[in-house]
Amino acid sequence: MKGLYESVQDAAGFLRSSSALVPRVGIILGTGLGGVSARIQINEQIPYNRIPHFPESTVEGHKGNLLFGTVSGCNVVAMQGRFHYYEGYSLQQVTFPVRIMKALGAELLFINSAAGGLNPLFRTGDIMIVTDHINLQVDNPLRGITDERLGPRFPDMSQPYDCELIEFAGKVALDLKIPVRYGVYAAVDGPSLETPSETRMLRMLGADAVGMSTVPEVIVARQVGFRTLVLAAVTNVNLPDAMEPISMEKVITNAGLAEPDISDVLEEMLRRTMKNGPI
Q1: What is the C-alpha separation between 81 and 33, in angstroms, rounded?
Q2: Strands 181-187 and 209-211
Q3: Which end is more exposed in the chain, N or C (fewer Cβ atoms within 10 Å of the end residue's Cβ)?
Q4: Are 171 and 229 in contact (CB under 8 A)?
């Protein structure tokens, strides 16, 4: 059985033979946010089931393609659908694409996520720029990894979200007159949503939003040396004393409220990066 490093090399080699484009930026599109892909001038669209060792997405709203192309002249590789621990995958499988993107040459990682708001000042459809996280998932994607070719076993997490990218995203949003929030993302296993008491606990811990993804990818991004930015679409606001029912259909619909603004911010960030040089 092949090790993780060899599997990464297999998948990266296949993708290099499928597309000559060398990405500068990796993009992971979350639940209900696949429309961001409409901004990409696509060179190659590769279904996940063709890529060696790649999982397949089982979640509604996740199409399951790896896209190579450009946004405002910037070379990107984008996941049109991501993987989750609650689908039954290991966290090493969930984060496998992050390693592939880095192996292909990407330097920056932009992640879009749908998240339930916990901060009472937030509103459905808000964009939250993630400044930190609380990992409440039962596993860690680095557990058991001792191969230094994959990165340090104990990566530093004092700054998991790149401060310069956070500042850059905030400035771009301000210039575009798009309001943004800043906050802490709590990651839980799912797939069940939070109870009122769990919601109260998460807020007491200091979380501003909660979701079932993102943090594993960010941990691996730190290990492999990515500079990372996460923009979360607030799909609902959980107030523990006045909880309203929420469905996946509603989550997808509400994520769509934030999608145009997230797309505008990302597109403008990439445009300025190409015009003005490295961030």
Answers
A1: 9
A2: parallel
A3: N
A4: no
Report the top-level CATH class of 4-276: alpha beta
CA–CA distance, 208 with 183 (Å, rounded to integer): 5
Domain range list for the chain: 4-276
Element (DSSP H or E) covering residue 106: none
Return the beta strands (E) in 81-218 as ranges: 108-117, 127-135, 181-187, 209-211
| Number of C-beta neighbours around residue 154 at 10 A | 8
**Residue 229 in tokens:** 């930015």
> H/E/C letters for each residue in 37-76?
HHHCEEEEEEEHHHCCCCCCCCCCCCCCEEEEEEECCEEE
Q: How many residues does the chain have?
A: 279
H-run or E-run covering 198 = helix 196-205
Q: For 14, how many CA atoms within 13 A lie in the half-sphere containing its CB?
A: 16
Q: In terms of pTM, does the model score above 0.85?
A: yes
C-alpha separations of 75 from 11, 23, 49, 165 in Å: 19, 5, 23, 18
Find the radius of gyration of the CA atoms of the chain: 18
pLDDT along the chain (279 residues), means of 10: 90 96 94 81 94 81 83 94 92 97 97 95 97 97 94 96 97 97 97 94 97 97 97 92 83 88 94 75
Cα distance between residue 96 and residue 49, in whole Å:
14
d(C-alpha 234, C-alpha 168), whole Å: 20
Instruction: Give the distance from CA 230 to its chain's centroid.
Output: 6
Residue in the block written with tokens 């992971």: 28
Place of tokens 């007491």: 204
